[in-house]
Amino acid sequence: MNVKLKGLVQEIEPLLVQYRRNFHKYPEAGWTEFRTAAKITEILLELGYSVKLGADAVSKSDMLGVPPEEELKIHMNRAVKQGANPELVKEMEGGLTGIIAELNCGEGPTVALRFDMDANDIDEPKEEKHRPFREGFSSENPGVMHACGHDGHAAIGLGVARMIVKIKDLLQGKIRLIFQPGEEGVRGAKAMVARGAADGVDYILGAHIGFQATKNRQLICGTGHFLATSKLDVSFTGIPAHAGAAPEEGHNALLAAACAALNLHAISRHGKGSTRITVGTLNAGQARNVIPPHAEMKIETRGETTEINEYMVNSVRDIIAGAAKMYGVDYEIKIVGETISGESSPELITKVKDIAQGTGLFTELIDYVSFGASEDFTAFMTTVQKNGGQGTYMMIGSQLASGHHDYYFDFDEATLACSVELLLEIVVNLIGKCQEDRIINIT
């Protein structure tokens, strides 16, 4: 354990809590993180990082599930009213809210760290038993709440950014900090990968507060069995008609959607791995005496591998087309989110465990867990691995007030400093100069 490094992190612990609470108070959902991204960018520029923003960080043509332009403008205006720099917000117009920041510390490997920023579409409770409300930092934005810990992740990213600047003379390589929008719904990573966020990276690390690490001072060093997933919005368009006088003149979009929903859940499972299919919503019709001309469905598929998920998506397309033809209606399918499967690199898992063991931060170290769900980080990690690098996804333990995506979600803020110190120790281990220089020069 580097005692001096630990002391530096302890000095900024109040600032980490301040960052987290500020982001929590002004949450923003995917592609609307204008205030969050602007605040982060300002700090990174002040610290001396080279920062790519807007179209330089996000490929517009690869964005998924983007809100309508008029809705984005509303969120841009709200961000400015809540203290965001108008010029930075303007640069992110269209929802281009990703950030790629880099600090060059000399010739050597490139280490990338990914931090997600977006919140959930949830109303935060205004109750005394909920600590954010009780202590005055609950959401000011109706219908949006940080119920997954991404406010903490963004704060950790800024903490790491500050500390890296303090110890940059001890490093020999590049640090890349990726602040990602739209992780919820797996919408944002693809557009940042397309803009080169993972290019030239030798090591990439992602981390999440909680999940399967639900105790303080617990660390899961690597995660695998990430499921590939696709999120689809489907609309059926039929012809309305008088339900009593002329039902034969109508084409029933509701029945087409209902038929599709039943058959989607009957897709044959795959012999090479697990699959998932969920019709999450189905809305249709307009009156009891009108043949329903419209129906909309929100669907998600998952597969143990990217290929198995593609099998699920192709099956969905066939069933939707068949149901539409059966009832004589038109249909449209939009992919509004997707990511691939992935596995953490065994070598980096081992390295992280060895480093964590030496920090004294953790009382329980777990090598590896199976995630059994999806995470947008796999798009970054798999790209790095295909290019010859290594990646891992950690879970940093914290006692939680309730589960992720729950109204009452909250985490132990002591996790913030612990996470910053862990990530710094990993960076120093991966691209640090000799041990003697580290101890002498940290001030």
TrEMBL record:
<dbReference type="Pfam" id="PF07687">
    <property type="entry name" value="M20_dimer"/>
</dbReference>
<keyword id="KW-0464">Manganese</keyword>
<dbReference type="GO" id="GO:0046872">
    <property type="term" value="F:metal ion binding"/>
</dbReference>
<feature type="binding site">
    <location>
        <position position="184"/>
    </location>
    <ligand>
        <name>Mn(2+)</name>
    </ligand>
</feature>
<dbReference type="Pfam" id="PF01546">
    <property type="entry name" value="Peptidase_M20"/>
</dbReference>
<dbReference type="InterPro" id="IPR052030">
    <property type="entry name" value="Peptidase_M20/M20A_hydrolases"/>
</dbReference>
<dbReference type="InterPro" id="IPR011650">
    <property type="entry name" value="Peptidase_M20_dimer"/>
</dbReference>
<dbReference type="InterPro" id="IPR036264">
    <property type="entry name" value="Bact_exopeptidase_dim_dom"/>
</dbReference>
<feature type="binding site">
    <location>
        <position position="148"/>
    </location>
    <ligand>
        <name>Mn(2+)</name>
    </ligand>
</feature>
<dbReference type="InterPro" id="IPR002933">
    <property type="entry name" value="Peptidase_M20"/>
</dbReference>
<protein>
    <submittedName>
        <fullName>Peptidase M20</fullName>
    </submittedName>
</protein>
<feature type="binding site">
    <location>
        <position position="405"/>
    </location>
    <ligand>
        <name>Mn(2+)</name>
    </ligand>
</feature>
<keyword id="KW-0479">Metal-binding</keyword>
<dbReference type="GO" id="GO:0016805">
    <property type="term" value="F:dipeptidase activity"/>
</dbReference>
<feature type="domain" description="Peptidase M20 dimerisation">
    <location>
        <begin position="233"/>
        <end position="323"/>
    </location>
</feature>
<dbReference type="GO" id="GO:0071713">
    <property type="term" value="F:para-aminobenzoyl-glutamate hydrolase activity"/>
</dbReference>
<dbReference type="GO" id="GO:0005737">
    <property type="term" value="C:cytoplasm"/>
</dbReference>
<dbReference type="GO" id="GO:0046657">
    <property type="term" value="P:folic acid catabolic process"/>
</dbReference>
<feature type="binding site">
    <location>
        <position position="208"/>
    </location>
    <ligand>
        <name>Mn(2+)</name>
    </ligand>
</feature>
<feature type="binding site">
    <location>
        <position position="150"/>
    </location>
    <ligand>
        <name>Mn(2+)</name>
    </ligand>
</feature>
<dbReference type="InterPro" id="IPR017439">
    <property type="entry name" value="Amidohydrolase"/>
</dbReference>
